[in-house]
């Protein structure tokens, strides 16, 4: 069902990716001082991951586990969707932890765990694929990189090197003007 939608509208996944790249660092900067909110959003962002990877589907498996190392590109709709799927949870976890590298490793490990479950539990009707793991890990890397940018922006803003406060804004109240 999702694959059919993505093939019918191939612009959806690149548009979602572009939106994540544009909004992710700004949202991450805002969330840097709000780890509870970041964790809550991370939990919500994991729901599509679970639904699209572990919810049983009614189909016959012809191959239990595929070994392939194709790199995801815009033209490979399903593979690129696997990239986009892992960007938000890793971005949000990295901001909450303040450790992009740890969140990247956790995202890659979570993807490997999903593929292992798909391989060991054929009753869910899903087959594991090393290409999915590679795509998910690429998404985890993008999410960690966006979180790194967000955390740098948060430090810059906190240290006063960020944009100047706007007149009438709470940050400019102590500027000495009356």
TrEMBL record:
Stretches assigned to the VanZ-like domain: 69-149
UniProt entry tagged with the keyword Secreted: no
The keyword Membrane is assigned to this record: yes
Superkingdom of origin organism: Bacteria
InterPro entries on file: VanZ-like
Transmembrane segments: 6-25, 37-57, 77-95, 102-121, 133-151
Annotated keywords: Membrane, Transmembrane, Transmembrane helix
UniProt protein name: VanZ family protein
């Amino acid at each position: 069902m999702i694959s059919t939608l993505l093939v019918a509208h191939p612009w959806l996944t690149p548009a979602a990716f572009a939106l994540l790249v544009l909004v992710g660092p700004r949202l991450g900067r805002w969330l840097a001082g709000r780890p509870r909110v970041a964790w809550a959003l991370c939990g919500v962002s994991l729901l599509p991951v679970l639904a699209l990877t572990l919810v049983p589907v009614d189909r016959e498996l012809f191959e239990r586990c595929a070994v392939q190392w194709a790199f995801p590109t815009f033209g490979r709709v399903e593979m690129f969707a696997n990239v986009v799927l892992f960007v938000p949870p890793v971005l949000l976890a990295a901001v909450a932890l303040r450790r992009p590298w740890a969140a990247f490793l956790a995202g890659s490990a979570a993807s490997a765990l999903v593929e292992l479950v798909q391989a060991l539990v054929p009753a869910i009707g899903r087959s594991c694929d090393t290409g999915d793991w590679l795509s998910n890990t690429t998404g985890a890397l993008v999410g960690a990189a966006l979180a790194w940018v967000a955390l740098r922006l948060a430090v810059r803003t906190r240290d006063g090197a960020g944009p100047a406060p706007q007149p009438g804004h709470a940050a400019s109240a102590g500027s000495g003007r009356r």
